[in-house]
Every structure is written in structure tokens, then in C-alpha cells.
């Protein structure tokens, strides 16, 4: 098995077709087809299913791609690291992050990083933990900064470093009819918004004593969530730190029920078995240092009207 065959296979899957991958790699389409065919012959299985619209992975292809993608990424990073050791200052660093990290940590970290590595290419991808974690496992991302979700066990393929804690609170609009609620049970009939899948918010609310079915909308956009909370009677369980953001603090407030919400911790996730390149390690250091400089608790929580 040749390294070029792994490169070609990963490129075809990522591009969605042999013709698109050939253009990206600047190779001939027949040559790329032959490379994939030789790889399949060596493995004695069919990796790709050809269709009029492109290619799709077979079950063997899905299993092989998960390993091939990580191997290709490691080889690419090895080349970058050797070039850096030889005096070069190029390379790539890809970071995934949630909305709170985007507002509280990332801008300063990027500025610090650019002073140290001005010519290294940065990729910044905003998303949520359930979507970014697979990209960290397969090394599409060098690292992810986000919360460790409640109820999720430790993943041995991923290294986790805690950075800052998040007090969880119930948030709604100013003037909400339930703004003076004293118990979580008074909120049983509302529609909830959640950044994360239903299972995460359900686990939190059930632990607080709010059982039964509930209406829930999964919203993977901070701006949309703030707008919905500000303009409707929906509620959300979110970090107290969200109220420190300009777009949220002016229109939202905490609904202080007697029940104490479980806290969550935001941290840095990296592949456990893959060392970071020097630039990626520098970015990770900046993210951790800046995150740990945040105050332990926010003093900007809005008081009950």
C-alpha cells in the first residue's frame, strides 16, 4: 500500500467524486481511477461505490476511511513539522469551538498566536461539541474547545484538559411571564431551546425534578437562540457567562429557581495518540492560558426584576 494511494482515496471521499478529486490533486482522472483500483485490489474489497452523481463509501470503505483519514492527517502534520524544524514557518492549524469560547477566549488566542506564527494558516470552525468531536477524532481538527457534556463518558481516543467552569442557569427574556418562578416545576409547560441534542437537556431537567414530555428546539446558533429568547416566551438552560455577551445581556435575564443547576466545564480536546505540531501546541497553550484567566464566576448575572 502506497502513501499516494491513501492520499488519493481520502481525496476522492472528501471531494465526493473522482473527477473533483483529480482537479484538486492536479492529476489525471484515469490515473486516479487506477490508483483507487489498485488499492481495492490490494485490500481485496470494494471501498467505493460508483454512482452517476459521484462515489459513496461501501461498508468496507467506511471502516477504512476512518483510519486512512487519520493516517493521512498525521503524515501531513509530520511533513509540516519537519519543514518547521528546517526553518520554515508554514503549516496549518484547525480549531473547533463553541459560541462561548468564540466570544470569550478565541479572539485573544488568535491575536497571540499570529504574533508567534504570522504565516501559519488558521482554520476556525464554530460548532457544538456533538458535531466537532468526530472531526477532532479523525484529525480534521487539531483541537476543539467546548464543554464536556453531562452523561457522556470519557473517550479514550481524546485527551481533555479543563479550562474554565460554567454555572448553568435558566434564561429567558426580560419581562417573561415566568420571570419570578421559584421552582423548576413552574416551567413545565414552556418550550425549551438547547444548543445540544435533546438527550443532554433532558438529563439536566430530569435531574432537577422536571419529568414528563416537553417541547424542545435544538438551535445550533448563538445569535438565533438569543433572538428567539428575546422575542418569545421560550427558555433555555445555558451558561451564566452568556449574559456577559453584549447581544444577550441587554435582552435576557436569569430565572432563579430554587433548584441548583449542575455546572459544566469547558476544556480543550485533542487526539490522545497524536502529538500536536509546534504551531498547534502554541495555539493550545494560548487557549488554555486565556481561558484560565477568565473570572471564576460572572458578576454580570441580571437580577430578578
Counting DSSP E segments of at least 2 residues, the number of strands comes to 12
| End-to-end gap | 68 Å
Describe the biggest sheet? 5 strands, mixed
Helical element count?
11
> pLDDT below 50 for ≥5 consecutive residues: which ranges?
298-305
Q: What's the pLDDT, averaged over the residues?
A: 85
Q: Biggest sheet: strands side by side, in what order?
A: 4-3-5-12-6
Helix/strand-derived category reads alpha/beta
What is the percent of helical residues? Answer: 40-55%
Beta-strand proportion: 15-25%
Rg for CA atoms = 23 Å
Which of globular, elongated, flat, extended, rod-shaped describes the shape?
globular
| Series of secondary-structure elements, N-terminal to C-terminal | HHHEEHEHHEHEEEEHEHEHEEH
Structure overview:
The structure is a single chain. The chain has 305 residues and is of the alpha/beta class. It is 42% helix and 21% strand. The protein has helices at residues 3-15, 18-25, 29-43, 59-85, 99-104, 106-116, 129-137, 198-207, 222-231, 246-249, 278-292, and strands at 48-51, 54-57, 92-97, 121-126, 143-147, 158-166, 168-173, 191-194, 215-218, 235-239, 252-255, 264-271. A 5-stranded mixed β-sheet has the order 4-3-5-12-6, with helices on both faces. Strands 9-8-10-7-11 form a 5-stranded mixed β-sheet. It has a two-stranded antiparallel sheet with strand order 1-2. The longest helix is centred in the N-terminal third of the chain and has 27 residues, at 59-85. It starts with a helix and ends in a 13-residue tail after the last helix.
